[in-house]
Amino acid sequence: MAEHTALAAAPRAAVRRAPSPGGRRGRGRGRERGLTFTAMLAPSLILVGLINAYPLVYGAIESTHAGTLIAGGPYVGIDNYTQVLSDPRFWAAARFTALFTVVGVLGSWAVGLGLALLLRSDVPGRSYFRVLLLLPWVVPVVVSSMSWIWLSNTYDSPLPTLARALGFGDVLFLSDPTLAVVTVFAFKIWISFPFMMMTSGASLEAVDHTLYEAASVDGASKFQQFVHITLPMIAKTTFVSWVLMTIFCVNDFPTIFLLTGGGPVDATTSLIVYAYRLTFQNFQLGPGLAVALLMTAALTVVSVILYRQIRRAQ
User: Fold this and answer.
1) What's the pLDDT at 172?
2) HSE of 62 in the Cβ direction (CA atoms, 13 Å)?
């Protein structure tokens, strides 16, 4: 009896194990479609790779030579890196760049998130305010920097005049090293918060309102709702915006150069301004490229760290 049962079950098991012709055709079509998409994308991917890889490879090679903008020089190995890393001006620029980046990222995020939360409520004319608050980001940085210079640089500018009227004496915001640093930080937050406001506002729109209603029923305060609902729900977008703003801050040349030129007494000299001076003012191409590549390495490390936070927030 058992033998008859086994014999009867064997054909059914064979039928279950046998691959269907339709399944094979479906998998074949999937592979063909994947190969077709890969072949179509390959030229663009190769072109983009070459466009990005060539300057990086060329810069890495030239950073090991003692050349200029006009002619190449002899191979010097890591001497350019040693020269840069032993220069106190490099470390001063690195400290300022790190502080500039932290203040720029967190400051613009705090202001942008606060305004996004405010505009999420029933504020009269909030659609008009959204457009007006984008102006610092839309206006060219040349125009914005010239406006801030007019406001704060000379003795008769509005801000020094206001400071004298309040009894603070003669305050020239771009001539004092400490005040110049504070002014550059404020200017960076001013031109960057609209980007953070847009990204935060978009992520807030995706948060389910019923979560806040349930939390209110449970007795959670507004602050508790913000900490335990809002921040976790927008964490992924927050880390993405931090990655982008970190890159923007580290590579931000026009903001600093147009506003202060890196002064006074190098108080606002960032790494990119330092690299510009080495390359285009001192005509030291190798050390300038060495600084740029060190910046690239640091940005890569920071981006990887923040990218891991993005994956954890998913």
Assistant:
1) 82
2) 22
Structure tokens at 50: 């070459």
Predicted local distance difference test score (pLDDT) of residue 314: 55
Paired with 65 in beta bridges are 75
Q: Which CATH class is domain 80-313?
A: mainly alpha
Q: Per the structure block, which two tokens stand in for 62?
A: 């030239």
Q: CA-CA-CA-CA torsion for 47, 49, 50, 55, nearest 10 degrees?
A: 140
Which pLDDT score is estimated for 283?
87
All structural domains of the chain with their residue ranges: 20-62, 80-313
Other C-beta atoms closer than 10 Å to the C-beta of 80 total: 24
Handedness of CA 223, 224, 225, 226 (dihedral sign): positive
Residue 216, CB-side half-sphere exposure with 13 Å CA sphere = 6
For residue 177, cis peptide bond before it (omega within 30 degrees of 0)? no
Say how far apart CA 219 and CA 159 lie, in whole Å.
Answer: 46
Cα-Cα-Cα-Cα dihedral sign, residues 274, 276, 277, 278: positive
Contacts 24+ apart (CB under 8 A), 134-140: 134/194, 134/198, 135/194, 136/190, 136/191, 136/193, 136/194, 137/191, 137/192, 137/193, 137/194, 137/195, 138/194
What integer pLDDT is reported at residue 272 of this predicted model? 94
Listed as ranges, residues in the chain with pLDDT below 50 are 1-18
| Four-CA torsion 298, 301, 303, 309, nearest 10 degrees | -140
Question: Which pLDDT belongs to residue 16?
Answer: 47
**pLDDT score recorded for residue 110:** 94
